[in-house]
Amino acid sequence: RMQNSRSKPCSCPSLKLREVASMYFTMVAAFLVILVVALQGSAPRESHFPYKVPLDPQGLLELSWNVSYPEQAVHFQLLIRELQFGILFGMSDRGEFENADLAVLWSDGHNSYFGDAWSDAKGQLHMDSQQDYQLLGARRAPEGLYLLFRRAFSTCDPKDYLIEDGTVHLIYGILEKPVHSLQAINISALPGGLQRVQLLKPNVSIPELPSDMKTMEIMAPDVIIPSQETTYWCYMAELPAGFPKHHIVMYEPVVTAGNEALVHHMEVFQCAAEFDSFPHYNGPCDSKMKPERLNYCRHVLAAWAMGAQAFYYPEEAGLAFGGPGSSRYLRLEIHYHNPLVFRGRRDSSGIRLYYTATLRPYDAGIMELGLVYTPVMAIPPGEENFILTGYCTDKCTQLALPTAGIRIFASQLHTHLAGRKVVTVLSRDGRERQVVNADGHYSPHFQEIRMLKEVVSVFPGDELITTCTYNTEDRSRATVGGFGILEEMCVNYVHYYPQTQLELCKSAVDPGFLRRYFNLVNRFNDEEICMCPQASVPQQFYSIPWNTFNRDVLKSLYGFAPISVHCNKSSAVRFPGEWEKQPLPSITQRLPEPVPRCPPAPGPQPAAPVPLNLGQLRGH
Amino acid sequence: RMQNSRSKPCSCPSLKLREVASMYFTMVAAFLVILVVALQGSAPRESHFPYKVPLDPQGLLELSWNVSYPEQAVHFQLLIRELQFGILFGMSDRGEFENADLAVLWSDGHNSYFGDAWSDAKGQLHMDSQQDYQLLGARRAPEGLYLLFRRAFSTCDPKDYLIEDGTVHLIYGILEKPVHSLQAINISALPGGLQRVQLLKPNVSIPELPSDMKTMEIMAPDVIIPSQETTYWCYMAELPAGFPKHHIVMYEPVVTAGNEALVHHMEVFQCAAEFDSFPHYNGPCDSKMKPERLNYCRHVLAAWAMGAQAFYYPEEAGLAFGGPGSSRYLRLEIHYHNPLVFRGRRDSSGIRLYYTATLRPYDAGIMELGLVYTPVMAIPPGEENFILTGYCTDKCTQLALPTAGIRIFASQLHTHLAGRKVVTVLSRDGRERQVVNADGHYSPHFQEIRMLKEVVSVFPGDELITTCTYNTEDRSRATVGGFGILEEMCVNYVHYYPQTQLELCKSAVDPGFLRRYFNLVNRFNDEEICMCPQASVPQQFYSIPWNTFNRDVLKSLYGFAPISVHCNKSSAVRFPGEWEKQPLPSITQRLPEPVPRCPPAPGPQPAAPVPLNLGQLRGH
């Protein structure tokens, strides 16, 4: 195991404020860092860093990494193109600069140091008493300085971030002046930003690809990226007439060189087969010029987000497209994120589909789990962690799944802006068995299709329970379920095979019981609230005085009332059966909370930054 | 620091099942254990064990102990009068044999061992992978074998019991046969029992006692202990006519020699001053012959329970008795616990009061905190941990306490049979400041007056919040508040000085809001429940169908509804003011959860029992 053994106590300025008086305040200089830390053994074994994201919108900081599951550690390679007096890199719950876990490279103008630090609730930096970012090396190259370091998933240091599956919010800060004391840094005052990634990429082996594989690029043709922070660009593509049924077996992003930091995410949607034709379009998705009919292009064929790699279907399955009953029209949607408002940047990014005419044994399908889009599921305002749960019941899977079951291999979690966590759990005979997908740092701004680490088999009679956690602290009225961006959703799109007729297995509280809740609230509270029966469900929610009792009782209602189950072949057609006033699935045994593994005995070093030699000065 | 350093790996039978075949099954023998464990240093520094309880009703096992707060450890001395093939001693949440943390002394007939073990959910024994009971020595004496061992309060071993303030349930089991494998032992199948003690006695220094101190013994005169498991014995005593006001400055138990294991607890009550005289009585408290008027003797003067020592008042205060306005009549109540149903045992136990005519600066007082005795505070059936909270509000302390405040120095927690935990917290300006008294393993069968480790100062405007946790898993109907043994209470009798007029500072939910709850439950649930307005509160609670919604909403009600505050000079006379529909005190900042301190670096040994030499065999 590689780790730096040089941790002799050093009297570094950051800790002792030594030489503060003799500092060269007027020095305008940058520095090059030359590695002096002896690497144990030779070059890092982890020389390959398959995952890469730019951290900043200019792409001056570029992070590559790999994941070692046997070591339970991530190896980072950070490319710093224009180093000044150092860099802060780290992780925090939701990308905030406060309470963050940070690796810091800093220079006082003479000497440079690397260490593990943390920021407190005010953004103030502190050296960590346990050093868990382990410097593996630094390398000068024409393009900049490469820093190599390692971090265990879990350090058991309460000041450290626990690296888990799902979204990780990376943050960075740039040191533009010499640093004489780490304690003097307040990260909130530095230039910096955040980048969301899935750090713990699954270790899935790449399936063998068919020899007759062809490619098709769905790309925006020479778009001039609008000079505004956020643009959703829409482009309509079309399959050739008479294009027969094929299987998509993989796809990958095609990002125009130089725009890596601007192309935030891309999706290819297939249009509804009901319409014979769709108009061409190439423009912003929110434009008034956009034809109405494009709203019927919502069936996901492919989705990519920054940091993601190519997506491979399992060897036995492919995503069908082409042929009768399948629309020839595709919509490419690109989210350009341009916070520095670059002008005139041209882009032809898109997604390259790899497909085969030699159909694989199974068609892959996509199923929606979670909550129905209805206002009856609502979140009171001012809630820090409000939980809503959607159920795919045993009765529905009993009816709709084949005896041999289905295999879920990927998942895309979805909420609107208040979503903070999403998890789907598989339950069988009332006992939770397996997490299908979980994201404890979910962000609505980072919705990837994620391969699962382990394929999940679901059999008739199983239950799939999807739980979303919302934060409405910044809202003054209730947030109801619905399609609007300020309404909420709780959805897990699971990708599975073999495809079944079941497109949607979701639930919502029984509306009759919700009416009883409104009546109850009306009678219990002294105030006369307009709970006129003709008022809409959102209006009734908006008029509730949100005291603790009304909040608590709403939670109790959602945890008790029977549900209306949507066990549907398509969004409009239910499977035959009684789906109203169904009992809530009961869970008699929960999955145990995962206990983080701590680093093995020869653990992290005590608190002491690692000194680096300052190389030649360079004019800035 | 003393700890046994002999932990060489040994091939002991318990682990390897060695010699199982060659065991002497017919051997009827006991053994003497001779210490072979070398003590580091000389004799234990902790040679004095001020606290003592018998563990079993015959007094064959006697536990003495001391507490070292600097070391955060308890030193135990266990006297085993008739050792057979070993003993199990340990601790568990509520005295159950399952999931217990155990020190085990066992013999296979040849060799003897001491080790740290735990019992699983079925009572099956397992050697602990971390040995935290540290054997300090063993000593043979005419009366039996003394085992000395040490245990840190907190070991950070998840299999170990955390020794906290308040009640600790000690358990023991007797090994009557040779033991060839620890794993073969199921503690639930052994003869054994439980004893409740306060292990962590406060380290309070004994105040100086007045030179003119006199004693008075309130003792049952030659009672023949009834041959039944439980007897509450009542005896009336009388102060001399014209006995002037004195201060009780301490009291101690007087237990008839030989009856140490039978006298469970004793209390001295003073009768109500309203009555000129009380009849004499000496008999069971539940006898039909007991005069009705004795029910007016409820003012606690002194209380003792098994394991407790003498009780000292703080140097500045004494408990007033005698003089005008104070009844001359006292009632002694003794709880005899006689599970082996001994016959004809004579007893003259009681309490010795130490008092002085030289009055101290302050009279001590007793104040009741918690919940009013009313059925409006109820616990649904089948609850594992249901919480009720009683409030002494800022408004009441503002009105009733002197500017200089009062000082609480002792506390007696009280619930009926469903009580499992009790805690009182002091809150000031909405922020929790200090725990007044807490018992996380509270038992209604062990209600001592406990000296506080730290005196708690309470000032006008402070709030005292008392929270009780109940278990009603064995009940099929709701448990309402009240005086009956199957009704519930939540009370903390705090002992304080200087005495004020405030005798009672308690609360209960506003009855109007409870009516709204009954209406709500009635309307929400489909069933028609008899919620006739003329029905009593208990009857309404009994008729509720206890689904999760009705349970949850009751919790929400108690957490939301305004309260009726009893801020009383005596049980009937309120301080002037508006006490109905008072807002619930709001807490903006909670006390942090205590983080257990783990043993320092040179910690416990790895799993290996300590071998002891088997001495001479002895016929049994």
Question: What does this entry look like structurally?
Answer:
- Two copies of one chain form a homodimer.
- Chain A has 620 residues and is mainly β.
- The first copy, chain A, folds into three domains: 51-201, Sandwich (Immunoglobulin-like); 204-360, Jelly Rolls, CATH 2.60.120.310; 367-593, Jelly Rolls, CATH 2.60.120.230.
- In chain A, 7% of the residues lie in helices and 40% in strands.
- Chain A has five helices and 40 strands.
- In chain A, the strands form nine sheets. In chain A, strands 1, 5, 6, 7, 8, 12, 13 and 40 form an eight-stranded antiparallel beta sheet that branches. In chain A, strands 14, 17, 21, 22, 25 and 26 form a six-stranded mixed beta sheet that branches.
- In chain A, helix 3 (511-524) runs antiparallel to helix 5 (548-558).
- The longest helix of chain A is centred in the C-terminal third of the chain and has 14 residues, at 511-524.
- The radius of gyration of chain A is 27 Å and the shape is globular.
- Residues 1-46, 600-607 and 614-620 of chain A have low confidence and may be disordered.
- Chain A binds chain B through residues 516-517, 519-520, 523-524, 547-549, 552-553, 555-557, 559-561, and chain B through 516-517, 519-520, 523-524, 547-549, 552-553, 555-557, 559-561.
How many DSSP E strands of chain A? 40
**Largest sheet descriptor of chain A:** 8 strands, antiparallel
Oligomer: homodimer
**CATH architecture descriptor of the largest domain in chain A:** Sandwich
Number of helices of chain A: 5
Classify the fold: give the CATH topology of the largest domain in chain A. Answer: Jelly Rolls
Helix content of chain A: under 10%
Based on Cα principal axes, name the global outline of chain A: globular
Chain pair forming the biggest interface:
A-B, 17 and 17 residues
What is the level 1 CATH name of the largest domain in chain A? Mainly Beta
Distance between the termini of chain A: 39 Å
Compute the average pLDDT of chain A: 86
Helix and strand composition category of chain A: mainly beta
Q: What is the percentage of strand-forming residues of chain A?
A: 35-45%
Number of domains of chain A: 3
Query: Which residues of chain A sit in consecutive blocks of at least 5 with pLDDT less than 50?
Result: 1-46, 600-607, 614-620
Radius of gyration of chain A: 27 Å
